[in-house]
Amino acid sequence: MINEEMDFTDVQKLREKAEKKLNKLRKSEDGELNKIDVNKLLHELQVHQIELEMQNEELQLAYKTAEKALKKYTMLFDFSPMGYFYLDPDGSICDLNFTGANMLEERRFSLINSNFKLFILDESKPAFNDFFRKTYTSNVKESCKVWLGYDNKTLCHVYMEGLVIENEQKCFLSVVDISKFSNT
Question: Which InterPro entries does the record match to this protein (predicted)?
Answer without folding.
Answer: PAS-like_dom_sf (IPR035965)
